[in-house]
Description:
The structure is a single chain. The protein is α/β, with parallel strands linked by helices and 329 residues long. It has one domain: 3-Layer(aba) Sandwich (Leucine Aminopeptidase, subunit E, domain 1), CATH 3.40.220.10. The chain has helices at residues 12-18, 26-35, 103-110, 113-123, 168-171, 174-180, 206-230, 252-266, 278-302, 309-317; strands spanning 4-10, 46-51, 66-71, 82-88, 131-132, 135-136, 139-150, 181-196, 237-240, 270-276. The strands form 2 sheets. An 8-stranded mixed beta sheet has the order 1-2-7-8-4-9-10-3. A two-stranded antiparallel sheet has the order 5-6. α1 packs across α4. The longest helix has 25 residues, at 206-230.
Amino acid sequence: MPECLLRRSYDPTELLAAHPPRLRHPHKRLVFELACPAGAVHSGPIEVTRWAAAALPATLELAATEVVPASGHYAYETRDGLWHVNFADPHLFCAYGSPLLAQDELQAAEHPLLGSLREARLAEGHAAQTEHDTSPTPVLVAGAERRCAIDKAPNAAAGRPSGLYGNRFAVAPADIVRAAVAVLAPPTRTNLIAMAAPVGNGEYQRSQIESVLVTAYTGFSAAVAESHRMWPGAKVEVRTGFWGCGAFGGNRHAMSLLQVLAARLSGVDCLRFYVFDDRGQASFRAGIADLERVLAAGAAAAGRSGEPVADVVERITNLGYEWGLSDGN
């Protein structure tokens, strides 16, 4: 179990009053005003924890994690033990008020108190970071209200032929943005695992493979620990996707393999992986096939279970994964 560096509980009404979000773009202000009108009633608390990087297990012991590829994007719901990965920046929710609407910023727009949470951490003199000296320190947020859903998908009839994702959000007319926002009444509540993916180019180095695995293992292990603390007996499910494969150009095969391996090392009951479309499904399946080959090679070589995890990391590195290019969002 990773070490908990910080634990803090916030009342959402007091949090919003004391630390209103700083929304630099008018579209972000519009979404906030729709989701959080004057007099809105909020439920809580919001529980925030930050976790030190956990050492990987010395030997390979894998849980029987159910791995479910799912089409499309996150389908949020309120359920004990259910967590969604936030594709975070090293500076937690740092672009929530910006013109951008990539994965991190979309979650912050739909969960508007995440901006207030960042402002509170900074005002209190605490680090609002998911890394420290390049070492991962994932942040978990339990109980954040999801107060609206933004339809970012391309829809020519709705005036957004290319959608609203990424940089397209800022240049869309305000009435198109307004029409894309569905206010949730009552709001649902979401549990988030905020963890930052690495950036690189060329061939993945062993240090990068290990960094991704340690980050995901720490975040997932923390979610397991928090679930057992808050909801004893609840099934622990993590929902994720191609973390780090958009603006950072991460390799989809590698990020699929490493997240599934991290989930099985950390004891997650179910990993639901959102693959977007048929192309994403193929990428995910290829990553899982790579993982199966890596594990089979180790079992065949060792002739037993419990081989060193370091050997598994070495075999993954030897797959020769290459970084891709940023998608520009």
